[in-house]
Batch of 2 targets.
Target 1
Amino acid sequence: MRRLLVAGNWKMHGSRAENAALLDAFLRAEPPAGDAEVLVCPPFVYLHELARQLRENDVALGAQDVCAEPVGAHTGEVSAAMLRDVGCTYVIVGHSERRALYGEDDQLVARKFVAAQRERLVPILCVGETLDERESGRTAEVVLRQLDAVLELAGVEGFRDAVLAYEPVWAIGTGKNATSAQAQEVHALLRARIAAKDANMAACLRILYGGSVKAANAAELFAMPDVDGGLVGGASLNGEEFRRICGAAGKQET
Ligand code: 13P
């Protein structure tokens, strides 16, 4: 059985005061998530403080990005060792906003994945197609190309301690989520790619869905056999809403 994971990606939102209020609303009811594992990914500058605030609460901490290099002259970058040092256990790599706005290609994303694992961080590898790519029938080609670049560098062994996230670009921040059938189709495709190399690994791999997840659609998405949780953006900025999404995950078993 795969324990579901719900990750809140705060993107570039928050302040120390807002974060405290958000956590307060989220943690108010116990237990927040039943059996699901919960993770929050705030901006870098808040990681250290949040690590201390979350210590007692069984909520894990992740970063939104990591440098592919371990140390050195890389102004503005943050290494995997630094993330580990301040209490992270997860890191998102290859988010579509990093790919589209900051020019990260498949090879750089693969190097970040490996850099994270070298420091025993669990990478959450994001893949997903644009609307144009979906409408021209290229969804499978795009997500498998993104996955293959990491398989090539990290090998299938790299997926023993990793998480995949399918985030269709057209569903991110638009209020228009993929249907549960659309999500299931791509998740099954991704799992089959890993299964072709190692069936046991594929069976254990958690594949999250991201893109306009909210309390109203979470249970239906999480009920799909290959959907093992969610990567939640906007709705994770509302403590009450995020708690309800985690609650929906806590009721599922896959
Ligand atoms: P939204 O939930 O705001 O659509 O964002 C999804 C996302 O990009 C999470 O990483």
Target 2
Amino acid sequence: MNTLILNENQIDIAAKIIKNGGLVAMPTETVYGLAANALDGEAVSKIYAAKGRPSDNPLIVHVASVEDIYPLVTEFCDKAKKLIESFCPGPLTIVFPKSDVIPKEISGGLDTVAIRFPSNEIACKLIRAAGVPLAAPSANISGSPSPTACEHVKRDLFGKIDAIIDGGRCSVGVESTVITLANPEKPVLLRPGGITLEMLQSVIGNVEVDPAVLNPLAKTAKAASPGMKYKHYSPKAKVILVKGNDKAFYDFVNSQNKDDCAALCYDEDTEHITVPYVTYGSKSNYETQAKKLFTALRRIDDRGFKTVYGRCPETDGIGLAVYNRLIRAAGFEVIEL
Ligand code: AMP
Ligand code: MG
């Protein structure tokens, strides 16, 4: 298949592809999404085929106005209203009880649907021009680091999808926060992201954190968010997270074999490290860590490292989202110094 590379002035071409049941990768503020008409089950199943995504991992539906959510859900509780007023458009996905217009291909057999109203202008223009909600998971091969630039999408999906709209780098850099309001009495954070746990709690009070955010899912347990059970975000190199203070981390990595390992570290660490390194943002600025993490994971493979020792990020604010992605990239392997 020939994949068109479009710019932001060619949204009409992308919208036509969507209306004809095709696939378009679009920029959003979180990561690039692989979009299809969410109301067309056949178009949606092409997303799973292009990504190699397991069919029980449900997709997020993207809309460009709050009113467009109503036909897709059967209940719109007060907490949803408050969260939407505070954080939408933006990097927040809410799980609702789904209405009958949602094809089974989207919801992976669940009776709920995840919905997001992105703030990225190009994404919103495409949704409006297509005239339908768009189902859009991250535009990468399943399991690999999420795409935060057009070249990442090209590398994973060129020749497998109809078009990519180049919208530059993504401003947040990690996927959206996912919260379920399927039971409005008990909101649960399923995936941390740009809208932090602290921000959610300031608007709707108590929000539980699903155990799968921080821990591996027991083999027999059922995932509240099926995406959580899969190995994710992983470069080909073996990633191991290392917990410890600055000096302990430097001593540890500097004692490793320089020839085949690297450190995945903060910008401030580089002058103390004698093995090769890739940085993922500033120690004190979690936003930069989120923005750079996936590019750093892809760079690790470009440079052909076999083993990478990653500094373990803090878990407050957007740090929780960075930690959640890195611990999965590491398959939950952690060394405590
Ligand atoms: P991605 O599309 O790659 O950003 O992944 C979407 C994430 O949202 C996955 O972790 C899914 O498991 C989660 N998700 C999507 N729909 C639902 C739903 N109805 N209930 C719970 N989690 C969902
Ligand atoms: Mg994904």
